[in-house]
Design brief:
The complex is a heterodimer of chains A (about 70) and B (about 130). With about 70 residues, chain A is mainly α. Helix content of chain A is about 55%, strand content about 5%. Helices cover about 75% and strands about 0% of the residues of chain B. In chain B, α1 runs antiparallel to α2 and α4 runs antiparallel to α5. The chains are: A mainly alpha (about 70), B mainly alpha (about 130).
């Protein structure tokens, strides 16, 4: 699942560790989310979206199948 | 996904305690140095857990799965270990069959694995 977490994070001048601390996960988890290697749970996805003051679907994009 | 965490000292302390039990078991059977060796391994393991720093692998081993991704990693690692162990048990069982020898303890271990898996299937199906 594609996401805009990295772009939103860097636009706010935050490190991965700082973002992780803000939403209660590790730096490595933030990295895994940004790299598309890990899909966050619904509560975490909502937390991230609220942190960035966006709707969940504006941050996380479900892959569309042709 | 729910997460759970425990004190950083609990698992290392349990490891040291297990080392003590191992020492006692071997010492009772007149093998004190074997007991010392096993206890030393458990103490060294406890040391790795305590001094493991910020390693995520060490955090999982310490029971500090306070990150949902670590919780998932732990679940998957347990499943992988279970599959490997089941495979080894089945290999042992079939080699005993082919060699026409007593399949103990492979048959008992395979039965335990099967019952445990079915119990888990039923339990988690009911709970989720």
């Amino acid at each position: 699942m594609r996401n805009d977490v990295r772009e939103l994070r860097t636009a706010r001048g935050l490190s991965q560790g700082q973002l992780g601390g803000a939403v209660g996960v590790s730096r490595q988890t933030v990295h895994a989310i940004e790299a598309g290697k890990y899909s966050p749970s619904l509560p975490l996805a909502i937390q991230l979206a609220r942190f960035f003051e966006r709707a969940v679907e504006e941050v996380f994009h479900v892959d569309e199948v042709d | 996904m729910s997460t759970r965490s425990t004190s950083a000292w609990r698992v290392p302390a349990f490891s040291v305690a297990l080392g003590g039990v191992m020492f006692a078991a071997l010492a009772i059977n007149d093998k004190p140095w074997g007991g010392v060796f096993l206890a030393a391994i458990m103490v060294a393991y406890a040391g790795v857990l305590l001094l493991g720093g910020r390693s995520q692998v060490v955090r999982v081993l310490r029971g500090q799965r306070d990150d949902e991704r670590l919780e998932l990693v732990d679940v998957r690692a347990n499943a992988f270990a279970g599959h490997v162990l089941t495979g080894v048990v089945l290999l042992g069982f079939f080699q005993a069959l082919f060699r026409d020898v007593d399949a103990w303890p492979y048959n008992a271990l395979a039965a335990v694995a099967a019952v445990a898996y079915l119990t888990g299937l039923g339990w988690y199906r009911w709970r989720t």
